[in-house]
């Protein structure tokens, strides 16, 4: 293969499915499977690709003569890093599945879960990835999805694999050893990082997806946070008690009970009367503070009385239903029903920034604790539901 090549794999009732391979850097390649005749959602993350020639890459890509297998090998050792039997590939409207062997059982990653250990069991373990607002329990999916794993090979070389897909998905680890990816939408879009050390793998991975932000120096200090102080008097007593016992203490958090009826960008002027002045006092004493915000906005306040919703409605920033026009409606902490900002929309960034700047003039916060941004919804789905999910004609899901 050269820098980029596409292979038509098989036909369905509409068109062939294409496997496209892109040699991106010496130690990174991308391959994706998609239907060229039908547009499907792809994660809007732009990853730069300078491109290299095949003879410059540290990997080889091979197809079996009959297109039944697709392999990626490390040139220096011949180790097969990815080997998919393409006859087992599923690519339908709402079910996609691909399996690969892995060169060892030393597999790590697949956050965020309550994993029993950093090294995964390969004994037919399945992890669901739904970015779910769920209390931690064994094998439970937590608040984020990281469909990335690193495998340490038998000779101690390491490589990483990312599935760039944001739909509901799961992954199964089997003792072959092999890994099976399943998802209910989008495309199969994989990035392979050749390392060869674990540190190199993570460096290459974060080069592709973006480096972590450097935190503020004060945020590395000791924090105190809980839900349910209930009033500014309880908050003050808590702060004073911490200082009285000389407990290391740099940052105080306040949870949703500081809000007026749990409405974002407000504070309770009865139970938390004097909060703006108290935060200024803490600053003078060398403390910092973090306030919570939940990225869902009630839509049921009186028109003209709740600026976050009114401005968001005017700017058209909400997540919409499948018609692309009607906002998806769910239920969360605030009174009434809620709508959800769409942070893939550039105008949403403008709206959020504007609201945060206005709120800082009210409460002089040092940091924002963003909670329940999965997005979290207390209902089973949203009103009125997704037109694509026809309960009378569900998609075929193989057993």
From TrEMBL:
<keyword id="KW-0326">Glycosidase</keyword>
<feature type="domain" description="Glycoside hydrolase family 31 N-terminal">
    <location>
        <begin position="100"/>
        <end position="167"/>
    </location>
</feature>
<dbReference type="InterPro" id="IPR025887">
    <property type="entry name" value="Glyco_hydro_31_N_dom"/>
</dbReference>
<dbReference type="InterPro" id="IPR017853">
    <property type="entry name" value="GH"/>
</dbReference>
<dbReference type="Pfam" id="PF13802">
    <property type="entry name" value="Gal_mutarotas_2"/>
</dbReference>
<dbReference type="InterPro" id="IPR030458">
    <property type="entry name" value="Glyco_hydro_31_AS"/>
</dbReference>
<dbReference type="Pfam" id="PF01055">
    <property type="entry name" value="Glyco_hydro_31_2nd"/>
</dbReference>
<feature type="domain" description="Glycoside hydrolase family 31 TIM barrel">
    <location>
        <begin position="212"/>
        <end position="394"/>
    </location>
</feature>
<comment type="similarity">
    <text>Belongs to the glycosyl hydrolase 31 family.</text>
</comment>
<dbReference type="GO" id="GO:0030246">
    <property type="term" value="F:carbohydrate binding"/>
</dbReference>
<keyword id="KW-0378">Hydrolase</keyword>
<dbReference type="GO" id="GO:0004558">
    <property type="term" value="F:alpha-1,4-glucosidase activity"/>
</dbReference>
<dbReference type="InterPro" id="IPR011013">
    <property type="entry name" value="Gal_mutarotase_sf_dom"/>
</dbReference>
<protein>
    <recommendedName>
        <fullName>Maltase</fullName>
    </recommendedName>
</protein>
<dbReference type="GO" id="GO:0005975">
    <property type="term" value="P:carbohydrate metabolic process"/>
</dbReference>
<keyword id="KW-0325">Glycoprotein</keyword>
<dbReference type="InterPro" id="IPR000322">
    <property type="entry name" value="Glyco_hydro_31_TIM"/>
</dbReference>
């Amino acid at each position: 293969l050269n820098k980029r090549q596409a292979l038509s794999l098989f036909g369905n009732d509409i068109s062939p499915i294409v496997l496209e391979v892109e040699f991106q850097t010496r130690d990174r390649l991308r391959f994706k499977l998609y239907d060229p005749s039908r547009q499907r959602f792809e994660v809007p993350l732009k990853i730069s690709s300078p491109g290299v020639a095949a003879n410059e890459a540290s990997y080889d890509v091979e197809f079996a003569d009959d297109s039944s297998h697709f392999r990626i090998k490390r040139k220096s050792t011949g180790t097969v890093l990815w080997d998919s039997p393409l006859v087992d590939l599923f690519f339908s409207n709402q079910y996609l599945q691909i399996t690969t062997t892995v060169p060892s059982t030393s597999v790590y990653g697949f956050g965020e879960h309550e994993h029993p250990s950093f090294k995964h069991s390969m004994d037919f373990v399945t992890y669901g990835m739904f970015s779910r607002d769920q209390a931690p329990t064994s094998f439970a999916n937590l608040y984020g999805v990281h469909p990335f794993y690193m495998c340490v090979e038998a000779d101690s070389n390491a490589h990483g694999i990312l599935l760039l897909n944001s739909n509901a998905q799961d992954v199964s680890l089997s003792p072959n050893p092999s890994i099976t990816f399943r998802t209910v939408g989008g495309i199969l879009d994989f990035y392979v990082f050749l390392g060869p050390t674990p540190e190199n793998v993570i460096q290459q991975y974060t080069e592709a997806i973006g480096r972590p932000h450097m935190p503020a120096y004060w945020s590395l200090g000791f924090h105190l946070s809980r839900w349910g102080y209930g009033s500014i008097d309880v908050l003050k007593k808590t702060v004073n008690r911490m200082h009285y016992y000389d407990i290391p203490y740099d940052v105080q958090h306040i949870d949703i009970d500081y809000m007026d009826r749990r409405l974002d960008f407000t504070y309770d002027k009865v139970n938390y009367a004097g909060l703006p002045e108290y935060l200024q006092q803490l600053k003078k004493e060398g403390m910092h503070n973090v306030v919570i915000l939940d990225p869902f906005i009630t839509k049921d306040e009186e028109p003209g009385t709740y600026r976050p919703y009114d401005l968001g409605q005017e700017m058209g920033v909400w997540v919409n239903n499948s018609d692309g026009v009607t906002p998806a409606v769910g239920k969360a902490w605030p009174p009434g029903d809620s709508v959800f900002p769409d942070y893939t929309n550039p105008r949403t960034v403008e709206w959020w920034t504007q609201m945060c700047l206005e709120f800082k003039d009210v409460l002089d916060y040092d940091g924002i604790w963003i909670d329940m941004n999965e997005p979290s919804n207390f209902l089973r789905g949203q009103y009125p539901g997704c037109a694509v999910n026809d309960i009378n004609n569900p998609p075929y899901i193989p057993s």
